[in-house]
Design goal:
The structure holds two protein chains of two kinds. By secondary structure, chain A is an alpha/beta fold. Chain A has a domain of 102 residues: YqgF/RNase H-like domain (Nucleotidyltransferase, domain 5). Chain B is an alpha/beta fold. Helices cover 31% and strands 19% of the residues of chain B. The longest helix of chain B is centred in the C-terminal third of the chain and has 20 residues. The radius of gyration of chain B is 27 Å and the shape is elongated. The chains are: A alpha/beta, B alpha/beta. Chains A and B meet through helix 1, strand 3 and helix 3 of A and helix 1, strand 1, strand 2, helix 3 and strand 7 of B.
Chain lengths: 155, 167
């Protein structure tokens, strides 16, 4: 990076002066800044899952209740209990698959219900007090594949 | 002596200057990229050390909201310690009959009042019901429920559960 200055009308007449901008301190400052930013940055991508709370909130979202209300319970031994109440009543137990909750089967069963009852757009997820949060999130993630709103229950 | 076919070698000069203009360009690009990443919001929220967020496929982090973090030893509101926990659990004396935490209720009430005062003073600011909950994946559901109950009691009913984006 260089520049030139022309002096005209000076005591020695026209004289040019080439100079180089000293980039070394700029580079030094940038190296420090980049190192600081890389050290302070966090590289995990954080997202959010929308969750409602069953029976919380001041106003009701929909005046007419759905034909059926669906509740999923995370039971002991990774069993899932799907309860349907309203115009249809049933309780389905989904046993664990290879020691883990069978989320695939849960998604299929809830998808069948949303196909049958078109006004079903929310399900309530309940869990025991000792259930780990990651299991609740995993169930929520599975349920969101077949129903738009997952409410947390058990309050 | 046989003359080299390469011809006469030019003498190597002792002075050598490193071409740092291109290096400065690269650094500027990296700096701009990092500054952009900082301002995009993805880096604005990061859990405390030791807190492991659960993993899920999900949408991007939305707008700013009140942040509550549940770690093994403490519940933090906006990065400030609010309630001490013992192995992810509230002390029994702190819990009320409705499942909410007394100490957390007090702090959330102050936050809510502050938000209302700001909204009154500035018409551009609206009272927001959003709350981002960053809970450790090992936390029991009872603790998460208590935090959600406390938030809901103080008008924070739009819950956003923070997770690490999976593949």
């Amino acid at each position: 990076m260089s520049g030139a200055i022309q002096h005209e009308g000076g005591p020695k007449g026209s004289a040019s002066q080439d100079f180089d901008l000293n980039l070394a301190p700029i580079i030094d400052a940038m190296v420090v800044l980049i190192a600081f930013m890389l050290a302070s940055a966090s590289y995990i991508a954080i997202g959010v899952l929308d969750a409602g709370v069953s029976a919380a909130g001041a106003e009701a979202v929909n005046a007419t209740p759905p034909s059926v209300t669906v509740t999923i319970e995370l039971a002991a031994a990774n069993e899932l209990i799907l309860k349907v109440a309203g115009k249809s009543n049933s309780t389905t137990r989904i046993p664990a698959s290879e020691g883990k909750p069978d989320h695939g089967e849960l998604t299929r069963k809830v998808a069948l219900l949303t196909g049958t009852w078109k006004d079903l757009n929310a399900v309530t997820l309940m869990a025991g007090d000792a259930t780990e949060y990651r299991e609740v999130i995993a169930a929520m993630e599975a349920l969101r594949k077949s129903v738009p709103v997952v409410l947390l229950g058990g309050f | 002596m046989k003359k080299s076919f390469l011809g006469k070698r030019r003498p190597i000069s002792g002075d050598m200057s490193l071409q740092i203009t291109s290096m400065a360009d690269i650094f500027i690009i990296i700096l701009v990229f990092l500054l952009k990443s900082f301002s995009s919001g993805a880096m604005a929220m990061s859990p405390s050390q030791g807190t492991r967020l659960p993993q899920a496929e999900t949408q991007d982090l939305g707008a700013e909201a009140l942040k509550i973090e549940i770690s093994e030893t403490v519940v933090q509101v906006e990065g400030k310690p609010a309630v001490n926990l013992a192995a992810f659990r509230f002390q029994k004396t702190d819990l009320q009959a409705n499942g909410s935490s007394k100490a957390l209720n007090q702090i959330l009430e102050v936050e809510r009042k502050r938000q209302i005062l700001i909204a009154k003073a500035n018409s551009d600011v609206k009272v927001d019901a959003k709350v981002i909950v960053m809970a450790d994946e090992r936390a029991p559901y009872a603790t998460v429920k208590s935090v959600l109950a406390s938030a809901a009691l103080n008008g924070y009913t739009d819950f956003k559960l923070a997770v690490v984006k999976g593949e």
